[in-house]
Amino acid sequence: MDKPQKNPTTSQIGTSTPKSKFEDSPVFNYISNLSPIESVKSISTAQTFSSLSFTSPPPVFTSPHVNSHRESRFFRCHNSIDRTKPLEDLNGSVYKEDVVVPVIEDLNKEAPLEDEDETSVETSSELPQILKSDSQTPDRSDSPCTDDVTLEAPSDIPRGEGGSSSEDVKMGMLNVREVNDTPDCGRLISNATELLVFRSPNDSEAFRCLVDKISSSERRFCAGVKSTKRPDINKDVPANGSSNETEPSVVLPNESVFSLNRGGMRRRCLDFEMPGKRKKEIADDQQSMCDNKAAGESSSGCVVPGSTTPIHSQDIVQETSDQAENEPVEEVPRALVFPELNTGSLKKKKRVSEQAGEGESCKRCNCKKSKCLKLYCECFAAGVYCIEPCSCIDCFNKPVHEETVLATRKQIESRNPLAFAPKVIRSADSIMEAGDDASKTPASARHKRGCNCKKSNCLKKYCECYQGGVGCSINCRCEGCKNVFGRKEGSLLVIMESKQEEDQETYEKRRTKIQHKIEVSREVEQNPSSDQPSTPLPPYRHLVVHQPFLSKNRLPPTQFFIGMGSSSFRKQDSDLTQSHNGKKPVDPVTEDKTEIMPEILLNSPIANIKAISPNSKRVSPPQLGSSESGSNLRRRGNGRKLILRSIPAFPSLNPNQ
DNA sequence: GAGTTTGAAACT
DNA sequence: CAGTTTCAAACTC
């Protein structure tokens, strides 16, 4: 199996092979040179670290467990393949590798900070186990395999990638859960809930909550994990890994944030979480295997409630934070994921949810004719089984009918591969934003398909964009859009036009600036270090900060459309820019920018991120008129247009791609 | 809680 | 692809 392979490496590295050997090895040297961390680790952690770098992630990644997790996200692993492919692809690729790596890094870095090496070690070890197989015994922590896993991940995954973070988070979750089987599960769960929130399609709000909490949650999470794990870990884990790995828990939180960025990641988080819940539930009910399957998906479902987004997410988060300490109940939402099995626990959850106002957070449907086998059903659409709280009639969206569910899913997916993809796609920027604004800035995001509102003015939850806490985009065909999160192009155009009317002089100035920027951008390309807004390398924050939406405090609209065919989005985006042109005949500048930006953006991943930021795209909603927006625009001047262009560059989001 | 409104999903 | 119907959530009373 995978383990054997890993084990040898790990065991060798960790146990038998002395540091000296590794160090002597050319590989070791090479690795050490590559990573800055090494130097630190070399002393205490060298073994683990090196092993990580050496060992290939493959074992973990390849491990069936991993797969199972992914699959679990949805109703089943198998299913996941079809429907989730897009998502999974995103998740999957990043998932395994990313997860492992971040943890390791964090461990290395933080390990020293954290006192307990032992705990850290165990966590790392556990992670592998989890990754490999959820079901596997926790005892494994002792086994070298775990070490291997951790080791491997780091090497492959670069820190820089935000996506990885998600993985890490998941990993952390998993570890925690497994560990949790024990007492502290509650906390873990609470933490998990946060993750779930991220996952929710509506992430925007959830994301906010997370962001807000993250700082605190991380602490908790780490603390909880450590505390929980340590006892167990200590038992199993000897001094070895201890020093190295302490960090995982800590790491997780941070990375979790990153994970949020990617749509795919969300679900995973849910899945992982599910297991945790599941364990609890299982312990209580000893539910059948189906639960596990369902759990994975359900978890996602819980999160899903896109509509619930803002409110729910917040509520949930709060609850989690509060309850986490007191009660594990938080999981309620997840429980939703699992259908009938949880009944006992569900009640609890229900109560909790209701109290918290969470009801919304979890998906509950009220289907009467669809049998919960159509997208009409929120649960089904969210990839979650219906649960007790649901008031559905003739529900087939239950583990009992798993086959039916899967078949139906397949069918729907065949029709629309993205049918089960999150409706709201978030960009990596979201994280950044969150970081900036603990407030709640929703991550930049957009509705993948756009809305078609005619009477609600995109001011009610009828509007999926509004529901998801994102602004309308070009994709939207809404009429009279007044989406507070961002109006669609029409509005923008209007704004633009008005501006032009107001002052063409300004326009010309802008144009000049843009040209300027273009020049700058060129320079930037040559000199990445430059602070120019266009520069890809510079911190994402620039983008985020400048984005007008952020100023709003509300969700920054995202330009990012994920699952959707990127091509369409791009076109649309371009259309936006063009639309300006179209409606406004002018805007040669934009075109210029667009041309320039893409190149820059494409060059570096970071650039991509920037590109993602939707804000730029959306010129600025009505609110923009205010000073902030104006200032932003001026600052970037061209920046904004440039950013829009960059969007297309953002490849990673599209699952399909 | 019942009824209405709304827009997505499904169907033709 | 467009138009219509079905459906269930969101909303109102």
Give a summary of the structure in a few sentences.
With 657 residues, the protein is an all-alpha fold. It has helices at residues 2-16, 19-24, 26-34, 36-44, 46-54, 58-62, 64-73, 77-113, 117-132, 144-156, 162-180, 185-199, 203-236, 239-245, 248-261, 263-285, 289-303, 309-326, 332-337, 343-356, 378-381, 402-415, 429-436, 464-467, 489-502, 504-526, 540-546, 548-552, 566-583, 588-603, 605-612, 614-617, 627-636, 638-649; strands spanning 424-426, 445-447.
Q: Walk across the major sheet and give the strand order.
A: 1-2
Record field, number of beta strands: 2
End-to-end Cα distance, whole Å, is: 31 Å
Q: Please, what is the average pLDDT? A: 46
Major sheet size, sense and barrel closure? 2 strands, antiparallel
Structural Rg: 24 Å
Report strand %: under 5%
Which regions are unreliable across 5 or more consecutive residues at pLDDT < 50? Answer: 1-23, 36-361, 428-443, 491-508, 518-657
Q: Helical amount among residues, as a percent range?
A: 55-70%
For the record, the count of structural domains works out to: 2
Structural class: mainly alpha
Number of helices: 34
**What would you call the shape?**
globular
Region (Disordered): 1-25, 108-168, 569-589, 612-640
Domain CRC: 361-486
Main location: nucleus
Keywords: Developmental protein, Nucleus
